[in-house]
Amino acid sequence: MRYLIQPAVIRDADVTVPGDKSISHRAIMLGSIAEGVTEVRGFLAGEDCLATMGAFRRMGIDIERPGPTELMIHGAGLHGLQAPDTALDLGNSGTAMRLMAGVLAGQSFAATLTGDASLTGRPMQRIITPLSRMGADIGSRDGKPPLEIRGNPNLEGIDYALPVASAQVKSAILLAGLYARGTTTVIEPAVTRDHTERMLRAMGVAVDQRDGHIGIRGPAALRACRVEVPADLSSAAFVILAGLLAERADILIRGVGVNPTRTGVLDILLAMGASISLENPRNMGDEPVADIRVRSSRLRGIDVDPGLVSLAIDEFPVLFVAAAVAEGRTRFTGIGELRVKESDRITAMASGLRTLGIRVEESDDGALIHGGRFAGGEVESFGDHRIAMSFAVAATVADGPVVVRDVTSVETSFPGFEACLGRIGADIVCRQGEA
Ligand code: S3P
Asked: Which of 61, 121, 236, 405 has its C-alpha lying 20 to 30 A from 390's C-alpha?
């Protein structure tokens, strides 16, 4: 499948985007090992979260789906999962694999986790090392999936300083810590998204959090609760950018999660001169949400604060697009982690931007982007949802039509993307076709 996108007039609109991917994954995982029924509303029915749901069903969990975005998860308690009879295929989802490895580390059975071509190329040593220190036995192909996890019901708590800032690794260790004897403490080099900590607290687990140390005492039982999933700021970011780039538009996106561990993208865009405001701030369960108003803005190039990287980790593809139309140069540093996401996002963005006529200088852990105008052209997504959607947004202000190849991955995080962008005036047609 590919997108054919025509330049468009983006207009005033009032829209919503689908539920948060990180919170939806965690709702299934924690709901499955909690005691009682966890009711979820606003669940993201994208392929990544559906893969997690499928995996827990294969381990015996009864998950009802009364509506497309509603779930009733019949938790089986900490020790109620059953051994799956075949490997669990987690598709494209790094979050599913790394967090589930944490849960499986404490089981009294073995399970194999695998995924698609992208996922089986991603680094897993970062979870294998700490989980092995806790007592799990994890086989891999040189630190890459498939992972063969032979759980150990007698895990021991550890103190672990994360070598890379990663909410996935932090969460894997904390989830294993639920099963371990004693205290498990994770020390973060930079703040990362804290949805796991918030949901654990909502389910009755005491989480100690100070000065970059996050600790829990195991074994710790979870109590089912209601989870209301806010709209995903990482998906809203595409709509935000389309609004900013437009000639003249005023767009309201409702009920978006604005957890401060996720809002780096807003801080970076504000520093570039964007007109973005948060209206009607409120809490949805344990997460802060707001309606986000965005108005067309003239962006200027900046040196992006490396201190914001872990708070905007998934938004760099779309921020590269912002940089490409900003006046002057934008320098990104400290973003080496982007090279091990669903694709090498620095190279993927740099190559597509160059195809569209933008000057980009790439370094190991950064990029320097010279603002300009997009020409039409044909770009690769490298099978990466966020690359595909970033170029679709760029195309709304290009001088000619843009084709984005290989866009099926958009279903992993943003089902309905073309229709949502259509509501603000974009002209995106999805075509069957080579790649
Ligand atoms: C996620 C954490 C991030 C992010 C991913 C979702 C999570 O990964 O890129 O899309 O839900 O914990 P890292 O924590 O490995 O950077």
From this structure: 121
Dist CA 120 CA 147 (whole Å) = 9
pTM check: above 0.85? yes
For the stretch 254-286, pLDDT in tens is: 999 999 999 999 999 999 999 999 999 999 999
**Top CATH class, 2-19+230-431:** alpha beta
Report how far ligand 1's centroid is from the alpha carbon of 168 (Å): 5
Structure tokens of 237? 């970011």
Q: What is the third-level CATH fold of 21-228? A: UDP-n-acetylglucosamine1-carboxyvinyl-transferase; Chain (3.65.10)
Half-sphere exposure of 132 (CA within 13 A, CB side): 13
Condensed to tens digits (0 to 9), the pLDDT of residues 174-187 reads 999 999 999 999 99
Residue of 314, 344, 364, 406 marked catalytic: 314
Q: Is there an atom of ligand 1 within 6 Å of 196 CB?
A: no
Beta strands per DSSP E along 269-400: 275-284, 287-295, 329-332, 359-363, 366-370, 377-380
